[in-house]
Amino acid sequence: MGMLSRVAMKGLLALDMPRRLQRLLDMNQRLPDFANNPSDLKIERPFRVSNPKSISIGDHVRLGAGCVFSPLMRYPGRWLSDSADEENQQSFNPKLRIGNGVVATGNLQIYVQSEVDIGDDVMFASNVFINDAAHGYAVADIPYKDQPLWKIHPITIGEGCWIGQNVVILPGVKIGPFSIVGANSVVTKDIPARTIAAGAPARVIKTWDSFKRAWV
After folding, report:
1. Which DSSP string corresponds to 68-91?
2. CA 101 to CA 159: how far, in whole Å?
3. Quick check: 126 and 105 in contact, CB under 8 A?
4. Domain extent listing, the chain
5. pLDDT (tens digit, 9 = 90+) per residue, 119-150?
6. Residues with a known catalytic role
7. CATH homologous superfamily of domain 35-215?
């Protein structure tokens, strides 16, 4: 009986091991100390956050696993080069704001050198990439990772938007409230409010008619 009990106990421990490992991972990856104190924030592990004091997050936000939030204070950083020349480094004062009720399926990547503002109740599908700067390519005989970032312009996503799977949003874009960006789109220019845009580059394919109460 004692032997059976020990075997049974080992079996139970083995079954419970994934949950125990997850609890250990969760303990080792606590929520960062953001610029504010959001209420009812849930971020699935794993995630990566840099410079959390440059990030404000609203209440009741749900973010799936694999998110990367990276407001850059300088470029290049140690990730690219341990011997980065400080005299030639760019310095930034980035701000990332995520509104109330924002949801993301997972793998939402946001890189900020200037400002990215995401309105309330925006919905992101998986693998969305947002960056308000671009790698420089002024010359073609210096590695592009070693050239200064350029075309740095704020990005705004209005309230209630739906950003589809694998969307890329580039510097300077403003997406109006309650717009939809279709899957696999590359947004290079502003998207008006209450429109559906798709393609690479994204263009408006439908507009909401408030009188007909339909997309036209």
Report:
1. EEEE-SEES-TTT-TT--GGG-EE
2. 10
3. yes
4. 1-30, 35-215
5. 999 999 999 999 999 999 999 999 999 999 99
6. 135
7. Hexapeptide repeat proteins (2.160.10.10)
